[in-house]
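Newbie here. two chains, one complex. Structure please?
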Amino acid sequence: MVHKSLEQACLIMDRSGVDTRKCMMCGKCSATCPAFDEMDYHPHQFVKMVTEGDIESLLSSKSLWKCLSCFACVERCPRGVEPANVVEALRVTLLRRQGENYITADDIPGLLDDKLPQQAIVSAFRKYKK
Amino acid sequence: MIYTYYPGCTLKTKAKDLDLYARKSATALGVTLEEPEDWQCCGAVYPLARDEIATRLSAVRTLVSARDNKRAVVTVCSACHHVLVRVNDDMKNDADMRGKVNRYLELENEYGGETEVIHYLTMLRDKIGFDEIKKKVVKPLEGKKIAAYYGCMLLRPSKIMAFDDAENPTIIEDFIKALGAEPVIYPFRNECCGGYVTMSDKSLAKKAAGKVMASAKDNGAELIITACPLCMYNLDANGGADKLPVRYFTELLAEALDVK
């Protein structure tokens, strides 16, 4: 198990382009996160858990789908850690598994309204489905 | 001044005002915007994962076509701008990515991030100048208290986007002043409106949009302007019952230049 989790941690670091070990746990990413209140694991915990190889807990977390990709954490991290990139690498990792799409084409009609911009639909397929 | 103009999917459909008034104002300012016939959707969201190659290709095609025409690309939509600038940065600075994309596309001339991507607002600021625009204003928007909503995608990450100071931006306020109106500074102008989850998580989208709206309102704004069709939609749909009107910056420009 140790080997497996280390392997997964390396995969997430490669996929995100982030070395999570640079984090000094100041918590600025979580303090600035607009989705903080909605999350089970917070941005600084994402970073720490990747370093520790606890990937599966993150893959089944609610937080994965609460991150708004607003890059506030990326901009404000004093160590250049880029937590939002870590979250996206985890989302992609999950979506690439069979049967793990977060949205399907059949869900779309129920989510539409007259004013919804095309970019929301295009990006939904990019963000939630592989 | 001639530029390649990249409208993107939403400006052709739900954000026609953003497109129409960008074109009309450009003509009034002596700028020619050439729209390529065969442009493709940029993908709407920048693929953050380093091993996402195919999702970067359509943006690269746009950048290559502009390079071949020897023109800089002008964007209007915040999302298109974000995607094109960041993919261009990958092509310039990430040798691994550059190699993979070029091998995939088998281009006649390899692409290495040569194209300049500018946003319509930075074109106004850096290529024309707000002082020049001020001179061309026919109908100044006097007495209007306008809140600039920057959102996320134009500003962050600032070391790549290089749009303005990410924490204390001034470009849209300077734009508002050039049109003769009064900019309203408020704390949430560069915080997220929640547009990212507008389809998947209404309650979070409402919470985030409500905070932006309340912040603009509490600071005395009567109107919000934005460059982003997704922010426009989200602030309007999820900004609460007591929301302010939201309009595209290009519409106000056209109004002030009297070409609306």
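Moderator note: The mean pLDDT of chain A is 95. The helical segments of chain A are 2-16, 28-32, 43-52, 55-59, 72-76, 83-95, 108-111, 118-128. Thread marked as resolved.
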